[in-house]
UniProtKB/TrEMBL annotation, chains A, B:
The protein's name: Putative pterin-4-alpha-carbinolamine dehydratase
Keywords: Lyase
Biological process (GO), any one: tetrahydrobiopterin biosynthetic process
Extent of the signal sequence: none
Source species taxonomy: Bacteria, Pseudomonadati, Pseudomonadota, Alphaproteobacteria, Rhodobacterales
Coiled coil: none
Reactions this protein catalyses: (4aS,6R)-4a-hydroxy-L-erythro-5,6,7,8-tetrahydrobiopterin = (6R)-L-erythro-6,7-dihydrobiopterin + H2O
CDD domains registered for this protein in UniProt: PCD_DCoH_subfamily_b
Amino acid sequence: MAEKLSETERETALSELQETGWSLDADRDAISKEFKFSNFVSAFGWMSQVAMVAEKMNHHPEWSNVYNNVSVTLTTHDAEGLTELDLKLARRMDKLAG
Amino acid sequence: MAEKLSETERETALSELQETGWSLDADRDAISKEFKFSNFVSAFGWMSQVAMVAEKMNHHPEWSNVYNNVSVTLTTHDAEGLTELDLKLARRMDKLAG
């Protein structure tokens, strides 16, 4: 099972992810980002790519979609906070969107 | 452009949709439903089917997914309320989930 990040790991990872638009929801120890695409097909196409990555990782996002916009929150429920899995999925999401 | 439903049309449609678990959000003149599946693959598989139907209708849901759960809200932004498009998409969603 994934373990919660240490303070140092969290600081380092967050400063990197904040540069690409992720923000920390301190209440839930989760990270969130809004992804914007040109239209619904692009948004859902990206979600489909992410869905396969997430299923393979056995680590799934909380996400909402309204037309060309996808709002994502990542946290590890089992660990009740951020783990390496969240950072990995966040980076994959950025890469697939980029 | 789709027109807002008349009071009578809305009443008839809502009583039918409420039987399958849809509820009215009167504030927004929207309908909502929680769809539950056995796992993420089933949930996202259903979303993929709905995505194609929605794109073809050019009428898209507001939806959130957390693992096996999909929360859907339907309304017609252009008409600022429920139209025939929402009823049609709601019925298609039920059929694809059933």
